[in-house]
């Protein structure tokens, strides 16, 4: 590997996008669980 090679780290925008997608996935999972509980109570 040369000293001039770029760092093996994604750009700032990509990291922000990944964090947002991770949060969205967690929210979606919680919403699904809540929907299952609500439909199970009926």
Commentary on this structure:
There is one protein chain. The protein is mainly α and 42 residues long. The protein is built from one helix and no strands. 71% of the residues lie in helices and 0% in strands. The chain is rod-shaped, with a radius of gyration of 19 Å. The mean pLDDT is 88.
Please give the structural blueprint.
Blueprint lengths: L11 H30 L1
Organism: Streptomyces flavalbus
Keywords: Membrane, Transmembrane, Transmembrane helix
Protein name: Morphogenic membrane protein MmpB
Give the key terms.
42 residues; mainly alpha; rod-shaped
In a nutshell, what does this entry contain?
With about 40 residues, the chain is an all-alpha fold. It has one helix at about 10-40. About 0% of the residues are buried.
The count of helical stretches stands at: 1
Structural class: mainly alpha
Shape estimate: rod-shaped
Calculate Rg over CA atoms. 19 Å
- Which runs of at least 5 residues are low in confidence (pLDDT < 50)? none
Largest sheet: none
Mean pLDDT across residues = 88
- Roughly how much helix do the residues carry, as a percent range? over 70%
Distance between the termini: 62 Å
| Strand percent estimate | under 5%
What's the total number of strands?
0
Q: H/E series, N to C?
A: H
């Amino acid at each position: 590997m040369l000293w001039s090679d770029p760092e093996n780290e994604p750009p700032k925008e990509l990291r922000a996008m990944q964090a947002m997608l991770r949060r969205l996935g967690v929210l979606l999972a919680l919403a699904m669980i809540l929907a299952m509980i609500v439909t199970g109570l009926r």
